[in-house]
Specification:
Rossmann fold; four-stranded antiparallel beta sheet; 2 domains; elongated; 584 residues; alpha/beta
């Protein structure tokens, strides 16, 4: 059975089961819709590579804030719900900056602690929240006054969120989030502000969870702090993990399955009828099995959407080979000057007082034995990490310690020694990521589907397709990058760097994995880039290539510069022969 057929059958079965249960018991429909909204909340962070368990805490804030505003302060529900969502947004902004400096399990633990703080605070404020007895009739939260939402309102909210996620997935923002999910460092060197996008994802998750919590309060009609305990946080994460973090509709399927499954088991197996912990066990088991056997989730069953390479070919407005001439020099003096650059890791000096300059239009080779500090130098110049000391001057301005996305947007692009493509994205999508800083449409513009947004997206795809064709990768444009041969992946990475239209191109072992014919073609291509005004720094072990393309060579050994000069001069240098080239 084809993958696409199997995926639609699975989706249809989940929908059919949920529909059957909701017809049998209409109250289950409200629960399903709220769970689906919570699933989107978890997806918003998981899709940005944030393992957050804060959704339950934000749902609790939204639920209690809306209930208090509506019942104790008398606000109409159409004001109390937005106010509660806004409160969640404010809390997310306050805690987001410090919390999001953490990664993976540390972030999960921290956000789980946040949820517990919220839950305990509810218990410790009985006069405001009802305390441990909950927000119910006995504590002044009248059931009829609380229960004010209708099912169609929940459904409309879910549909609106689905549209926003769909529109975002097709935009610059969605592409940036996918890049961050796969490789944050590579995304940063493509001009993507990873910190801003992660904080935006965390804020969106908080707002959506707050909305779900407010709906929960006014749908159920009563609240209890136990509704938002640790197990609830795991439930919400289970929806997103089972559904998959790669596509927005996956978590909705996950929520539908995990909402229905405990009910089916209770109805089908009588001895489980009174087993209150069944949902927790089912969700925990589903989370474990999904991580082990189906890490892509239910969304992975669906065929990846084509990147529309054929459309991109037809949308090219002007003929060309996709490579723009480099911009004219903006200031006098060297384009890049490295002055006394040092970088240490613990007690190990990877770079020690390295100085050299690159003039506009030069091709500079950077050579040396393994461990000499070549990649460390490129990482430092491109902003992956700051230098321990020294200066990096780009067009006369100091940039040492500047964020990687700002350096990339300023005109410095790079490739990697170990290929850092976005493996689950197509070749075309990888290269369109390189246009990120030159696409100016806002997120709101993508939601509104403005003509300007569509025009910029078409232009970026057409330019990317022209570049792909120039590098001989046209037949692979719709192929996932991870499925390409090693040599083709190298070419895609170079094409992605060129898509930034850089003035300085840093190539870290671009010929690695290529055969002699491919290496020779790469040398010709680099020389063509030089003719078009590009300035290039090349780290490479293929000395024939280095001697062919370079105007000057810098040699490193044990982190220090031991020689610099024309290729013929360096090839005869005694220190270089001793440390790297050897003697015949």
């Amino acid at each position: 059975m084809k993958k696409s057929y199997a995926s639609w059958i699975v989706a249809a079965l989940i929908v059919a089961v949920d529909a059957f249960l909701c017809v049998k018991n209409p109250q289950d429909l409200d629960r399903l819709l709220i769970n689906a909204i919570l699933a989107l909340s978890a997806f918003a962070t998981l899709h940005a590579r944030l393992l957050s368990l804060a959704s339950a805490g934000f749902a609790a804030i939204g639920a209690y804030a809306s209930a208090i505003l509506a019942i104790k302060l008398g606000l109409p529900i159409w004001l109390s719900i937005p106010a509660a969502v806004l409160a969640c947004g404010i809390v997310a902004l306050i805690i987001g900056l410090p919390v999001l400096k953490l990664n993976d399990v540390y972030l999960a633990i921290c956000t789980l602690g946040f949820g517990e703080i919220v839950r305990v605070s509810i218990i410790l404020l009985p006069s405001l929240t009802g305390g441990s007895t909950g927000a119910n009739l006995s504590t002044g939260f009248a059931y009829e006054a609380m229960k004010q939402t209708r099912t169609w309102e929940l459904a409309l909210a879910l549909l609106a969120l689905c549209y926003l996620f769909w529109a975002t997935s097709r935009s610059k923002t969605g592409r940036a989030l996918r890049a961050i999910r796969e490789n944050p460092d590579a995304a940063a060197t493509m001009g993507i502000n990873v910190v801003v996008y992660k904080n935006g994802a965390f804020l969106a998750s908080a707002l959506i969870a707050g909305l779900a919590g407010a709906f929960y309060a006014h749908s159920v009609g009563s609240l209890d702090a136990g509704d938002f305990k640790f197990s609830r946080a795991v439930d919400i994460l289970s929806y997103a993990v089972l559904g998959g973090s790669g596509a927005w509709f996956g978590p909705i399927l996950g929520a539908g399955l995990l909402t229905a499954l405990p009910i089916l088991l209770r109805d089908g197996l009588r001895f489980l009828k009174d087993f209150s912990q069944l949902p927790n066990i089912v969700n925990g088991l589903a989370l474990m099995l999904a991580i082990i056997f189906m890490p892509g989730g239910l969304a992975a069953l669906f065929a990846r959407r084509s990147s529309r390479a054929s459309e991109a070919r037809g949308e090219a407005s002007t003929p060309g080979d996709g490579i723009e001439d480099a911009e004219e020099e903006r200031v006098s003096g060297p384009m890049l000057a490295v002055e006394g650059l040092s970088r240490s890791f613990g007690g190990v000096a990877a770079l020690c007082d390295v100085s050299f300059a690159i003039e506009r239009g030069q091709v500079i080779g950077l050579i040396g034995p393994n461990g000499a500090g070549k990649t460390t130098l490129i990482n430092t110049v491109s902003g992956i990490f700051p230098p321990s000391s020294g200066k990096i001057k780009w067009e006369g301005r100091e940039i040492q310690g500047r964020a990687a996305h700002r350096i990339a947007s300023g005109g410095i692009a790079r490739s990697y020694q170990n290929i850092q493509l976005f493996g689950e994205m197509s070749v075309l999508e990888n290269i369109v990521v390189g246009h990120h800083s030159r696409i100016h449409t806002s997120l709101a513009g993508s939601w509104l589907r403005l003509r300007s947004e569509k025009r910029e997206e078409r232009a970026a795809r057409a330019e990317a397709m022209a570049l792909i064709e120039r590098l001989g990768l046209g037949d692979l444009a719709d192929q996932e990058a991870s499925k390409l041969s090693y040599g083709d992946q190298r070419r895609v990475e170079i094409a992605r760097a060129l898509a930034l239209r850089p003035r300085l191109l840093l190539l870290d072992e671009p010929a690695a994995g290529m055969n002699e014919i491919e290496t020779a073609a790469l040398g010709d291509f680099i020389l063509e880039l030089k003719e078009r005004g590009y300035t290039i720094l090349v780290v490479e072990h293929h000395m024939d290539l280095i001697m062919k393309i370079c105007d000057e060579i810098v040699v490193l050994n044990f982190g220090s510069k031991i020689a610099q000069g024309a290729p013929e001069e360096v090839s005869r240098n005694e220190a270089v022969l001793e440390a790297y080239l050897g003697r015949e």
